[in-house]
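thought: fold this chain, then report.
action: predict
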Amino acid sequence: MSSRGSKLLVAALGLAMVFGCGGDDDDGGLGPEHVCADPADCRLWEAGQVAGVNFGLSSGFPEGSPATAIALAESNIANNHEFSWRAFEPTRDVYEFTELERRAAIADEAGLPQNAFHFAWENVFLDDFPPWAETITDPDELRAEIRERAEIIFERYPNLAKINVLNEPLQTLGGTGDLEENHFYRVLGAGYVAELFEIVNEAAPDSVELVLNENFVEYFPVKAEGLVRLVRDLLEAGVPIDSVGFQTHLMLTELFDTEPDFALLRSTMQRVADLGVKVWISELDNPVDPARENRFEYQAENYRKAVEACLAVPQCTDIQVWGVQDTRFWFDLEYEDAAALLFDENFQPKPAYFAVREALLAGRP
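observation:
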């Protein structure tokens, strides 16, 4: 990884409140030998070194925003959501690289390995599937478009750390734990998951980690079982899959009047890891109803438990929080003040921030 000096300079110039850490900067690689001179001043990525995980705050790197300085200072991995198909190719054969390359340049300058989101995502509730692709009903034509997309991505960006090959393939709210019958399923058949991974694998350098990403596993045991079954079936068929991202959007508590089951999250991560692939927390956040008593303490405990679930699984490599600051939360809920992230509207760290840092500094069990 390249020098982190630019990160520290950006943080110092852009936001005085971003915490410093004593000692010399290193290359950001994993290693339990890295310990901050004063743990109370440790950045999250540095605390992650103690636990042996990479840590990131997903950010669009808005120009001039303190959120950018925070993300750069607290992370040693970066997410680039502009690889989503709708953003990447909004019109057939018309590619939009401006915002993607702006974000990529910032991550490269800071020496942050980039995770590309999403290669393929078409879902009943929410997706990034371009409308023009929905008109393709010929299987060979759709395969050709998918292959071309993969080839263009890796011709331009061969040094990606990860690419989310397929996002949310299972029925969103548990259901039977089976595949959602989305456009890929209807056109290519139930074997489309394997096809997507094989097509991307053909184009991707060996160094790029191929990811299957899924949500709400911590709420639905039937979905957790379906995920394990899907990964096992893919591996038994020889499909090249390197890791599974557990999104960990902790947002269904009020809707379903049920708490996230962190023991289920941990055990499912371990079952997937035991199959021979890496696991990680890919989109962590926790919106909380303003009416909940002591909601920030409750939120902090949820963040802590999510981090501890990852750390309890030796093959869990990364933790990525899905945003930086509360006012830029990605999803509109029925209550305006979701306050889902680690920094408040004034860019101040919340109890959840300190809970995450403490959990990381405590290391793996």
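thought: worth noting. The first strand starts at residue 54 and ends at 57.
final: tokens above.
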